[in-house]
């Protein structure tokens, strides 16, 4: 029998500071994360709807990134920001070629 107890162990990124030049990368990641998520939902039969409804597979964010509210974009930006900070904390360098 599998043990289903799992304790998440997030990476402490409180002391990680990203240089301002990564803001462009943060925005690109934000857009890509949203577009990838939306495409996956649409491929799974989800449709645009006024509110999230799992039983009818409807979600208000199934629109292009540019059509999201600023609040929704900020959510995606924060996700990208925290991901970039975790990458740096893990010892990787982010270099634009």
UniProtKB/TrEMBL annotation:
MF terms (GO), sorted A to Z: ryanodine-sensitive calcium-release channel activity
Keyword presence, Transmembrane helix: no
Pfam family, one: RyR
Signal sequence segment: none
InterPro entries referenced in this protein's UniProt entry, alphabetically: Ryanodine_IP3_receptor, Ryanodine_rcpt
Entry-linked Gene3D superfamilies: 6.20.350.10
A single BP term in Gene Ontology: release of sequestered calcium ion into cytosol by sarcoplasmic reticulum
Domain Ryanodine receptor Ryr: 6-95
UniProt feature coiled coil, ranges: none
Keyword terms of this UniProt record: Receptor
Keyword Magnesium: no
Top-level taxon: Bacteria
GO CC annotations on file: calcium channel complex
Transmembrane domains' residue ranges: none
Protein name: Ryanodine receptor Ryr
